[in-house]
Design goal:
alpha/beta
Length: 242
């Protein structure tokens, strides 16, 4: 399987009053096309920070992120990296269908992608809700809208933060299967989760504790240190407010 992104020695710290919080401590991670990866750890362990660095929402204080298809430090487009954050990030003024179609519009694929968007809504139990606003559906349904929006353009990397937190067992299983199907089509899906049911269906589990990755599922392999396109050069720690 081809490598999509490689993280080497990622560090991230925040200032909380007089205290310096080390959210990530030299994290190494290799993500490949076609795999579904679970990121597990207690609250505050660094899961969300790692996802934010991978999608470009935050910059690391040190270490490198190497992309196989990108150069520079810009935030990657949705077609490369799609995100389902814990707060979902739906636009209140747009309907359910418009929220899901937004990445298609931004990518210039709206007309050819509408059928696929409608299929996703149907698969996730939202077919009758397309004309509703997010405030008019349940929290669990909004969560599934956010997953459909993340999947709609078939991104190379999909990052989901607690995607099944508000789902019953049946819908959690349906969302897991949707993610597995996307991975089988060549995407890499990374899911931060506490769900034991979801863990049973992933290809690989990465454990994080106190900002350190404890298990990467890559026996006998360490991330390469060689430089390449799309890297962030290692720098000295730069503590920022956060």
């Amino acid at each position: 399987m081809s490598v999509i992104v490689e993280a080497v020695g990622l560090r991230k710290s925040y200032r909380r009053g007089p205290e310096e919080v080390h959210a990530l401590r030299r994290a190494d991670l290799l993500l490949r096309a076609g795999e579904l990866v679970a990121l597990v750890g207690p609250s505050g362990s660094g899961k969300t920070t790692l996802l934010n660095l991978l999608c470009g929402w935050e910059q690391p204080d040190g270490g490198r992120l190497s992309w196989s298809s990108m150069s520079g430090r810009q935030e990657p487009p949705w077609s490369e990296v799609a995100v389902m954050p814990q707060d979902l990030g739906l636009i209140d003024e747009l309907t359910v269908a418009e929220n899901v179609e937004l990445p298609l519009w931004l990518a210039g694929q709206l007309e050819q992608g509408r059928t696929g968007a409608a299929d996703l809504l149907g698969r996730l139990g939202l077919a009758g809700h397309g004309d509703r606003l997010p405030a008019e559906i349940s929290l669990g349904e909004r969560q599934r809208v956010a997953l459909a929006r993340a999947m709609v353009v078939g991104p190379r990397l999909l990052l989901a933060d607690e995607p099944t937190a508000h789902q019953d067992a049946d819908w959690a299983a349906a969302m897991l299967q949707a993610l597995r199907d996307l991975a089988h089509q060549g995407s890499c899906c990374v899911v931060a989760t506490h769900s034991q049911e979801l863990l049973a269906g992933v290809d690989r589990v990465v454990a994080i504790s106190d900002g350190e990755l404890e298990l990467t599922g890559e026996p006998g392999r360490s991330p390469a240190a060689a430089s390449g396109p799309g890297e962030w050069a290692d720098t000295e720690p730069d503590v920022r407010d956060g």
